[in-house]
Design goal:
Keywords: Membrane, Transmembrane, Transmembrane helix. By secondary structure, the protein is an all-alpha fold. It has one domain. The chain contains one helix and no strands.
């Protein structure tokens, strides 16, 4: 009896681990390029704002 319960819980645990791994893999595959693109755009915006600040200081 106890062995059957152990097998059921082990099966449930392994199913959860496997499905979580698949979901994480799919999300990383789909959204990692988008995240990198947004970070690059954010860095470009920061760089351009720093350049404009430098130009304002130089013109004073």
């Amino acid at each position: 009896m106890n062995m059957d319960v152990f097998i059921l819980f082990f099966n449930a645990f392994m199913t959860t681990v496997l499905s979580s791994a698949v979901v994480i893999w799919i999300l990383r595959k789909q959204y990692l390029p988008v995240i990198r693109q947004l970070e690059a755009e954010e860095e470009e915006a920061e760089d351009s704002s720093m350049e404009s600040d430098r130009k304002k200081e130089a013109s004073k």
